[in-house]
Amino acid sequence: MSYIVVDIESDGPIPGDYSMICFGAVIVEENLNKTFYGKLKPISEKWLPDALAISGFNREETLEFDDPTEVMLKFEDWIKDNSKGRPVFISDNNGFDWMFICWYFHHFIGRNPFGYSSRRISDLYCGLVKDTFAQWKHLRKTEHTHNPVDDAKGNAEVLLYMKNEMELKISLK
């Protein structure tokens, strides 16, 4: 079983009406050197300037990005090539990140290699410290830049911290 931390950037709040602009993923293991980065051409004419600005790209740049089907097929291949056993999707905000990744997988290639579920880092941390209001983002080593690979790495560092320092029982084989 491999845990894969994913972070996405979009130009709006929901897939379909709006577009996933880019995403990053990292296999959770000690060196965090297995990463994926995809930039996807918008699928809709709708976009919110404030949402898109978070990604650091402008609309004209995004129109030159890659075909979403090709990106999702490459991501699926990367998952197969780099994970052991069933891949587990985990993120900072899986309600948002999962929604886009799951929708794009099913919409563009008809399947999702992660299956039908995901995990949220915050819930794991809050459970470990027994406080539903606990904050954990200070445990990131990699700066949160809204580059989705950087953000996924920072979140993976927190998961490793919980495993190594807080004795979270998690198999990262």
UniProtKB/TrEMBL annotation:
InterPro entries: RNaseH-like_sf, RNaseH_sf. GO terms for molecular function: nucleic acid binding. It comes from the Bacteria. Gene3D superfamilies: Ribonuclease H-like superfamily/Ribonuclease H (3.30.420.10). SUPFAM superfamilies: Ribonuclease H-like. This is 3'-5' exoribonuclease.
